[in-house]
Structures are given as structure tokens and as C-alpha cells.
Amino acid sequence: xxxxxxxxxxxxxxxxxxxxxxxxxxxxxxxxxxxxxxxxxxxxxxxxxxxxxxxxxxxxxxxxxxxxxxxxxxxxxxxxxxxxxxxxxxxxxxxxxxxxxxxxxxxxxxxxxxx
Length: 115
What we know:
Largest sheet: 2 strands, antiparallel
Helix content: 25-40%
Strand content: under 5%
Structural class: mainly alpha
Number of helices: 2
């Protein structure tokens, strides 16, 4: 998207469109950190390649292996939580959003979010 943002600004002077593209890109990157256990895994640096075409996300949790026990994270593999409108799967992490019942917990770090 970076090339598209720059082209939109330099050749077409479409500043609102460029801001929209940049905002969407930054939101996707921030969502990764807010909605996964990347930080809980002890990572202090950004994930190299995140947001780049062909970038890889290492160490994904196996879907058949439990990642949470109730609201407690029990894996050191990368995982994310499911949302209230998604089917609950035993052993998987809750997301913890405004749509969840109080006290359920989860791994979402932007708790003011409606998603």
C-alpha cells in the first residue's frame, strides 16, 4: 500500500484518499498487536515484515492445541481471540470486547474497542 499512498499524493494530489489508505494500513498493523498474544510471548520488537507483501508470521499456534484455559493464556505460540459473534471453541482464547459478558477476560488490549 505504501507505493499506492505515495502515488496518490504525488501524482494525483488526492490527500483524503492517501490519508484513508495510510490509516487502513496502520490500523491493520495495530490490530495485530492488540488482538494477538505477541507481547505476552515476550516480544519487545516489532514483527519484521508485518504489513509487507509476502511478510511471514512465525510460530502460529496449532488449531488443534488449546491456547487458553478459561481466560488464561496457556501457550507461547502466536494466537488471537475469537469474537462474541463467532462460535466458541473450547481451549481457544476469548477476544474480550464490549460484546462479551463482564468478567469473561480475553487477550484484546484495546478494551475500548467495539470489535
